[in-house]
Amino acid sequence: MMVTKNKNMKIRNIILYLFLAGISLTNFAQNSGEKKSKILFVGNSFTYFWNMPQMVNAMASTEKVPIQVKQSTVGGTSLKQHYNKEKGTKTRDYLENNHWDYVILQEYSTGPVYHQDDFKEYGTKLANLVKSIGAEPILYMTWAYKSNPLYQPALSKAYNSLGKNLQVNVIPVGEIFMNARTLRPDLNFYFDDKHPSSDGSYLIALIFYKALTGNSVANIPDRLNSKDENGEEIILSFILPETGIFLRQLVDEWVFEPNNILKN
Q1: Domains and CATH numbers, the chain
Q2: Model's pTM, two decimal places?
């Protein structure tokens, strides 16, 4: 009787294991087949410094959020140059020959201040082109130079005004970036006078992840990585734990409107 009982228990355990394994495989198949939101970043070095778009992708990956990020960036370019296919930009080709759900538009750093007419004209043209292909344009508000933080109000006003006119979302990266600078003057958020440091780029990526998904960034790791085409690990960023805690709290406490662009 003892041998028979043990045999029956083993059979039941095998059946239970196969049942649970079946559930896990089904869930994996469903999750792996989940549609990803395709996001294109359009801009220049203010976008690509320290692989910021890839950081957003890595953050989403750690949280199992289905997005796919690509960038169309050339150093020193304006939205006018992107629209007119100048300086080797491929933005028009990317927009006209691929499917996108969201396209994030970043103007040349001082463009909204010194070239307001071009910013309005080509920001509008690109936003309308993005809408015409069935995607949603989003404006990426940048930050003032380290040497002159007084530019931020003008930048904020220009981006918010264009966003209102176009009825599109503006992600207030510049305002949060400058707030971080004020709150933690001991941290260096700049690589030089204008480009972000690795800490600054990590902060920018946190802002985009939070604004796009509405998810808390509290559990985003200090170390972000990716893989190259051969499957080798690429380290995107190392953030000191105490710095990471501050930056994630800062972003989580900021109120974004709307609070989750991808879910609208």
Answers
A1: 35-263 (3.40.50.1110)
A2: 0.86
